[in-house]
């Protein structure tokens, strides 16, 4: 993907969308993965991979086996670019029927790039103690091609399938946030999905939002707390 100067100037001087300044070159250019040493800031490698647009990462970690070290990158990847998010305000539908994000696992040395689960989703989160480490579970919001977010999912890396859903009609969720239980500190005795999942959900019928609390293991609802206002589905949040 490239930013074209003429398109950028036209966007700044008009009311067109910011995404109009981008030009997609995925048909003839690869995606470049940059490997950076976090201690020194030195660039270790530039690795060409399958062409895609990526907005959110799930996790990245190293696998050491005998004499080799493998870098695993799990991402939400698009075959196109962000025009998928252009909405027709008269129909509440996407203007162009772009496919949603596919979950891809890219392995370096580049040996394969495959799908993690057969569900399109965005805004993935994992147990924070497993960031940069091998992990098993992730949580995300389902993102079908014809709308943005409509359900929450729990995915399982080893089996490459979705293992739990939370969905209700007229209740679009926001990003799910996994909060480990206080005793689950990420050590070898901790269970990775021992915690709760929080999400701000808009109840369109009541015109109010609520904080949804799900069991991180079973994905069953533990409770919900309504607030007095409606909060549109948002991108990112955190628990304090």
TrEMBL record:
Residues spanning the signal sequence: 1-17
Protein family according to the UniProt entry: Belongs to the carotenoid oxygenase family.
GO terms under biological process: carotene catabolic process
Coiled-coil parts of chain: none
Cofactor: Fe(2+)
Residues engaged in binding Fe cation: 56, 236
Name this polypeptide is given: Uncharacterized protein
Originating organism: Rotaria socialis
Cofactor binding note: Binds 1 Fe(2+) ion per subunit.
UniProt GO MF annotations: carotenoid dioxygenase activity; metal ion binding
InterPro entries from the UniProt entry: Carotenoid_Oase
Keywords from the named record: Iron, Metal-binding, Oxidoreductase, Signal
């Amino acid at each position: 993907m490239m930013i074209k100067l003429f398109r950028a100037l036209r966007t700044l001087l008009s009311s067109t969308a910011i995404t109009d300044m981008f030009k997609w070159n995925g048909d003839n250019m690869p995606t470049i993965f940059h490997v950076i040493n976090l201690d020194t800031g030195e660039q270790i490698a530039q690795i060409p991979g399958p062409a895609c647009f990526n907005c959110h990462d799930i996790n990245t970690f190293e696998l050491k086996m005998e004499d080799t070290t493998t870098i695993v990158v799990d991402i939400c990847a698009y075959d196109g670019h962000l025009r998928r998010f252009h909405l027709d305000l008269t129909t509440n539908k996407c203007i162009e029927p772009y496919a949603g994000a596919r979950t891809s696992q890219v392995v370096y040395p580049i040996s394969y790039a495959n799908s993690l689960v057969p569900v399109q989703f965005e805004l993935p989160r994992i147990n924070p103690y497993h960031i940069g480490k091998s992990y098993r579970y992730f949580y995300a919001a389902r993102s079908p091609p014809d709308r943005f977010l409509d359900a929450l999912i729990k995915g399982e890396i080893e089996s490459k399938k979705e293992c739990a859903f939370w969905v209700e009609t007229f209740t679009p969720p926001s990003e799910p946030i996994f909060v480990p239980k206080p005793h689950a500190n990420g050590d070898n005795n901790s269970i990775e999905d021992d915690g709760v999942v929080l999400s701000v959900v808009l109840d369109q019928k009541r015109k109010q939002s609520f904080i949804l609390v799900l069991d991180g293991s079973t994905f069953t609802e533990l409770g919900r707390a309504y607030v007095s206002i409606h909060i549109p589905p948002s991108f990112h949040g955190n628990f304090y």
